């Protein structure tokens, strides 16, 4: 069944497109997509979970049918946190939500779950292929072999900080071909050129400041950190060496590549179901 569409308005006036797979009596699961995706990424997962959750996905600012602010400063993590708050105020004002996030969605969601005022509103967090930038800042400072390996995997971050060239690559098409070859995947017809171009601002607004001046961000929210073993962008230690920041942590290394929500939605649904179920048993 296709989702119902609504909008939520963030604190700075940005309008967000929100998609709800209705099961009003069920716990709410909010799905946050990464770059260069939009909320359509979650449709196969939502179809598998819609009997057990009220699944909600939204287009992150700059993607899909949400507004596309022109300023790079409009994409800082605090603005993205205001977007998330606007969505959960609308879909679940009175009960905590479960959060499922991937890639830049996970980077955002780590900011949400480590915000003291939002932690009571989040029942669980399932993170796939996306670390906290603050945690990454401390991890990379170690100068270990694992940190150096992650820097090699992060070559694309330096590329996205170049002026005009990344945008040109997406517009001309050669960047699509290069990135698709990393996982031998086909182009995603659900993505628009705006998803690719606007989302570069996420990197430029956040990565350097957070890595240079990381904050000590902690959370008591139960976290499941999922690391695909063939992820060409995010190494396993960066995602799982975080117990000091998240004491209620479970980690799983699974077979697969970076775009796990698209390539194996059944596994994603099972992991969310198991993690949320475990959280519910802890609370009884």
UniProtKB/TrEMBL annotation:
Residue ranges of the TM segments: none
Entry-linked InterPro entries: AB_hydrolase_1, AB_hydrolase_fold, Epox_hydrolase-like
One Pfam family recorded for the sequence: Abhydrolase_1
Domain AB hydrolase-1: 27-159
A Gene Ontology molecular function term of the record: hydrolase activity
Keywords assigned by UniProt, alphabetized: Hydrolase
Coiled-coil region(s): none
Keyword Hydrolase recorded: yes
UniProt protein name: Alpha/beta fold hydrolase
Lineage: Bacteria, Bacillati, Actinomycetota, Actinomycetes, Propionibacteriales
């Amino acid at each position: 069944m296709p989702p119902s569409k609504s909008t939520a308005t963030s604190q700075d006036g940005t309008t967000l497109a929100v998609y709800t797979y209705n099961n009003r009596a069920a716990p709410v699961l909010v799905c946050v997509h990464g770059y260069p995706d939009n909320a359509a990424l979650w449709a196969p997962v939502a179809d598998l979970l819609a009997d057990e959750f009220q699944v909600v996905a939204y287009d992150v600012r700059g993607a899909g049918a949400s507004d596309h602010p022109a300023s790079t400063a409009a994409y800082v993590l605090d603005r993205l946190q205001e977007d998330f708050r606007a969505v959960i105020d609308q879909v679940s004002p009175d009960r905590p939500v479960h959060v499922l996030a991937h890639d830049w969605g996970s980077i955002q969601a780590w900011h949400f779950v480590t915000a003291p005022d939002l932690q009571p509103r989040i029942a669980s967090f399932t993170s796939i292929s996306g670390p906290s930038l603050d945690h990454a800042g401390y991890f990379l400072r170690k100068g270990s072999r694992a940190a150096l390996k992650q820097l090699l995997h992060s070559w694309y971050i330096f590329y996205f900080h170049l002026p005009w060239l990344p945008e040109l690559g997406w517009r001309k098409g050669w960047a699509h071909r290069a990135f698709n070859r990393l996982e031998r995947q086909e182009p995603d017809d659900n993505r628009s050129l705006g998803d690719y171009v606007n989302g570069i601002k996420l990197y430029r607004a956040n990565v350097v400041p957070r890595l240079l001046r990381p904050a000590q961000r902690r959370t008591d929210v139960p976290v499941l950190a999922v690391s695909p073993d063939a992820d060409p962008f995010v190494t396993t230690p960066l995602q799982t060496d975080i117990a000091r920041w998240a004491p209620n942590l479970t980690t799983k290394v699974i077979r697969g590549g970076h775009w796990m929500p698209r390539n194996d939605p059944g596994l994603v649904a099972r992991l969310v179901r198991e993690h949320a179920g475990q959280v519910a048993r802890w609370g009884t």
